[in-house]
Amino acid sequence: MKKLLMLAAAFAGVQASALAQTELSSFSVVGRGGVMNTFVHDFQAIGVNPGNLGRSTSIVSFTIGEGGVGASSQALTKTTMKRFIEAAEGDELTLAARRDLAKAFTSDNVLNAGADFNTFAISINLPKFGGLAFSNRQRALSHVAFNKNFSELLFLGQDAELYQQYAPGQTVYVSKLFDGTEIKASWVNEWNVAYGRKIIDLPLLNIYGGAGYRYIQGMALYEFSSNGGEVKAYSAASPILDIDYDKYLNDPKFTYNDADGLLSPVGRGHGFDIGLSAEIVKIVKVGLSVTDLGKMTWTENLLQAQDKGFKLPEIDGSEEYSFGEAANMAKTIIDSALVFSPVSELTTDLPTRLRAGVGVKIGERVEVGIDYVRALNNAPGNISQDFVGLGIDVKPFSALRLSTGVSTGAGDKINLPVGIAIVTPVYEFGVSTRDVTAPFVENNPGGSFAMGFLRFKIGKPKVL
């Protein structure tokens, strides 16, 4: 269980990374706080709404090396983050300070973190044919939630309240004691293709439809969760992460991946997107899509654990009890309860989402949009809460686009994003953050950053 606690500590200490469950690979999307369904076109429509490819703005559009990172928490403040880092580094904290940390970390959204990076993406739009796009993307996602017992055990050890409920030596189970605790993480390499075109052409109404497919290589998967009496605990990691699997190599059920390629994936899967979008009198835009339909199958370096139950350690009576000792107790307890063993195969759902949006163009310089995103399953990497956002793009003059808005949900508090982009007929460069207040506000220790270096456009499609 040492890896579990190390993972929890690493996630809780992150100050930059996360898919606030938005498309961090696009600096313009981050600058609107994740609002995108009616805004994105060209290759940016991949994974969001493939129907928008039918109304691409360029004959050819491509990017190289565009991405971002971010992090958010509904539970932590800058003060609690500082105290946690001090405790993790070995500083002794008072019992009162450790109680404060245990209370702060008891949350459905201790942390939502991740990163999104397009190594390349390209789209082509031709009259009568429609829009076709390709991309390769690295996507890492994570979610951390602790229930009261897990948080108190981690920070308080023998002073945790559960010692008043259960006697030392009594057998208890993870499914009962840690209900509501989740630590999930995934890293995948995606190869995407998407197509969209106009399907209805009327004087005041254009409707576009599209579909996308992705071949997914699973690089890493981790889940420890206890919900409704069910415990899930499994992991798989590519050899490039240098995890020690020596103790499992002689087990006939263990399929070992010994770096059989550049990335050496340990899972594979297929995903699908479908989407519709509409333009009404060339002013109002409407978008509706379902993304990440499909499954992943993990077959290599795969371990899974069952809830065997554990006994609470005897209390030694010491008056001095540090965070390090409490963490070691938590490690010992869960190590005894969850024993990982090799399995030959595991199938997981992709993080399927419903996306809806409405946008309005106000003249030639202003566009406003509202997005709503809802998780359709509880798969690793999916958003933990519904997302709602208002996004605005303003072009004070032709070479400059400013983005802002307000958004909440998906594990975030209220975000106030800002994005700046230099725009020419053939080139865009931009930087953005999902919440410009993060460095200054006590109760928002997260943040995000996205940047696009090379986004090129060639020509404008003809309107038929």
Automatic annotation (TrEMBL):
DUF5723 domain location: 52-417
Domain of life: Bacteria
Segment forming the signal sequence: 1-20
Keywords (A to Z) from UniProt: Signal
InterPro entries: DUF5723
Signal found in the keyword field: yes
Name assigned to this protein: DUF5723 domain-containing protein
Protein's organism: Pontibacter aydingkolensis
